[in-house]
Design brief:
- The protein is mostly helical and 248 residues long.
- The protein is built from ten helices and no strands.
Length: 248
């Protein structure tokens, strides 16, 4: 069995778990769009972005360890953007440069946090059902489901390879990290190629392109799902109004 999102990230235990899988996915996208739309160069815009992030954390209730690790990951990945402040502003202005780099920084970190927390609310079956319930072209649904499924399989294999390297090398800490960094791609990429070929052959043999995937297993949204969607769209509309009002 492949590792599930909850096994890798931890399980979100908030009210979002009461929603249908496809509504959880759409809600995640809506909250991300709201953070992107809101202006990050004003105090009001930053407060609104922080409010959306807090509301999403209360809605999902992810493990504190997941939030800390996600923020640390975002700092490492997006933090270097702040170093471009002296060159990002118009006319070499430090204040305008900081506004540009800060907008990229805060939006990037919060989009990562929102997406990770949203994924943590879904197990493998829920993620699969959510994607198949969305109004997407059949080929995109097939490819998306397979990419997610194989990503979790490869993650599990990567962890097994890491443990094997650790046990054979008898090292820990930074030395183990370096060994894994240089040895894992050599083992991992070969498995990726072999698995991709096997999956392509299996999909062609089973005729997945001719199967009505939505008839296999989907979840119908209920009243609480519609209420959640209306609240998300209302939040998105408020974000657009704030952006339009501050931009005038």
């Amino acid at each position: 069995m492949p590792a599930s999102p909850q096994a890798i990230l931890g399980q979100a235990r908030g009210p979002i778990n009461r929603l249908a899988p496809q509504v959880r996915i759409v809600s995640t996208v809506i909250y991300m769009l709201a953070c992107i739309i809101l202006p990050a160069y004003t105090v009001i815009g930053n407060l609104a972005i922080a409010t959306i992030a807090i509301l999403w954390l209360l809605f999902t209730l992810p493990p504190a360890r997941l939030v800390i690790r996600t923020l640390a990951f975002g700092m490492v990945m997006i933090g270097p953007v702040l170093l471009l402040t002296p060159w990002a502003g118009a006319g070499g202005s430090a204040s305008s440069g900081l506004a540009v780099t800060w907008a990229v920084f805060i939006r990037g970190i919060l989009c990562i946090l929102i997406s990770i927390c949203g994924i943590a609310s879904l197990d493998v079956v829920g993620l699969w059902q959510g994607i198949l319930s969305l109004p997407l072209p059949r080929m995109i649904s097939i490819l998306t489901v397979q990419v997610i499924h194989q990503s979790f399989c490869l993650w599990k294999q990567a962890m097994q390879v890491t443990k094997a390297i650790a046990s054979r090398a008898a090292t820990a800490g930074p030395r183990l990290a370096l060994r894994v960094l240089f040895n894992l791609p050599r083992v991992w990429f070969s498995r990726v190629i072999l698995r991709a070929q096997r999956i392509a052959d299996a999909m062609e043999l089973r005729g997945l392109c001719q199967v009505d995937l939505k008839a296999i297993g989907t979840v119908r949204p209920g009243g609480i799902d519609r209420l959640a969607m209306l609240m998300g769209l209302f939040l998105l509309a408020i974000s657009i109004l704030v952006r339009w009002g501050l931009g005038r």
